Amino acid sequence: MMSLEAETVFAAFEATAEKYPSNAFLVIPASACRSYAEGELRYTYAEALAKIATLRDTYQAAGLQPGQRVAILLENRPAYFFHWFALNALGVSVVPINPDYRSAELEYLLEHSEAVLAVAIAARVGDLQAAADSAGRGIRVVSDDQVPRALPRLASTPSAQALGRETECALLYTSGTTGRPKGCLLSNDYFLRMGMRYLNRRGPIKLVPGRSRIMTPLPMFHMNAMAGSTMGVVMSGSCLIQLDRFHPTTWWSDIAATRPTGVHYLGVMPAILLGLPETGNERDHGIQFGTGANVEPAHHAAFERRFGIPLIEGWAMTETGSGAAIGADEEPRHVGTRCFGKVPPTVELRLVGEDGSDVLHGMPGEMLVRHAGPDKRLGFFSGYLKDPEATAAGWADGWWHTGDVARFGPDGCLHFVDRKKNVIRRSGENISALEVEAILQQHPSIRQVAVTAVPDEVRGEEVMACIVVAPQSAPTPATAEAIVDWTMEKLAYYKAPGWISFVASLPTTATQKIQRGELRTLTASLVATPKSIDLRSRKRRQRVPNE
Questions:
Q1: What tens digit of pLDDT does each residue of 265-294 get?
Q2: Torsion sign, CA atoms 276, 278, 281, 287
Q3: What is the pLDDT of residue 422?
Q4: Which of these, 10, 86, 337, 424, has the minimum number of CB atoms within 10 Å of its CB?
Q5: How far is CA 182 from CA 45, 168, 304, 439, in A?
Q6: For residue 333, how many C-alpha atoms fall within 13 Å in the half-sphere facing its CB?
Q7: What are phi and psi of 259, to 5 degrees?
Q8: Which of 541, 542, 537, 532 is nearest to 465 (CA)?
Q9: Do the beta carbons of residue 509 and residue 441 sit within 8 Å?
Q10: Do the strands 239-242 and 182-187 form a parallel or antiparallel pair, or are they unpaired?
Q11: Superfamily, domain 424-538
């Protein structure tokens, strides 16, 4: 097991490759790479290191310098790992791009991140270049397979910045409550500590050096897969089985083909798998644990009984990293109660009410967290890019304000209650209601709009928009369909409204601000009535032509 001797993510990978050169590092099942490869892809640590070294030398020859950023739209493909580690070896930070992002999101990310180069799968180079041009960013977009032979020389000034733990490793964008996504600055130390946390987890969650096999369908542009499963695997010499996304029809066949010892899940997955017809070999899998969050209480025990896999619930956020991560690794797990474990010795936590004072034991309150010890921000993110005010507000009074509400059980276990923030959680994706509102407000048929979450039996929550139509527009199903289709041209498909309700007016304050509490009450009464138009079937991931 590796200690925190490595100074960078690349150094950690290189050390593991020297120790376990012939071990499998990465497996992409055939079902996950059928759009760009024939059959399963496998890479040992030595094979991956050779590809990384070639890319590193190419990037270095092109003039990339420590402290610069490169945007990458590479999906969950092998290229993602190779380019990330190669750039990290040079002290260059990566800006992962959600492949579902559309024009408005791409323009914002490329402008805000100040990336000096973008690397994408071939099918998305045109989209990304158009966004870069529209945003006024004079940057080159190249396909991942062009990099070794056609990477242009970049005009840059030699950097004196040292490579080390505090060097920026990645800039991850996360939906916030103020509309536009915030860029979370994540250091090498952040990633290395996330890997060590995985190695040090207890109970069923075990990474056996050189032997474990971890399968995940989660996206690499999120911290769970990028900093959690990947770093745990790299720092233990284990194997990562990376899916492109969750496919219920091939889930069990992929498990049979790759034999993982552990899996990562999102709350929506157990519900879907429970809905599949039963087979005779559902417990013949060798999986020792599942780790994730937000499994529906009604499905938790049923899943464990049927499939024999303990689902270990946990809590963390991009901003907290390993510094305040909590997991129900050991008993009692209180299955089916949204329990995510006890506060570990490495974390300090308070539950506070609206006035900022601690709530009584057993009562719900917002979670305030920090690392235990002299450095209260150890393991946390480094701050929001270009937003010191939001960073300071998050760290008000020396505690990180999570916006999540929890309560203590009688035995000290924490149970998730709700989110205080105006964020919609759909199938594991955080969606800013304000971001969706800002785009919808540009539609010519909309005079006024408010967006909130409504419960969804499969996805946890769904996006609902209450709309006051413009004078020239009609509040009809055809108008609603046109609005959703238009939104999916601007934003990732999952952010578009799944429900639309045309209303005469919205609940607002005297200063015309949306009354969010009143809005939630309104939508709860509308969603099950004919006044609401169900558009969930129109929300489909936009397919990209095969390369």
A1: 988 899 889 989 998 888 999 999 999 998
A2: positive
A3: 73
A4: 337
A5: 34, 16, 37, 17
A6: 21
A7: 55, 60
A8: 532
A9: no
A10: unpaired
A11: ANL, C-terminal domain (3.30.300.30)
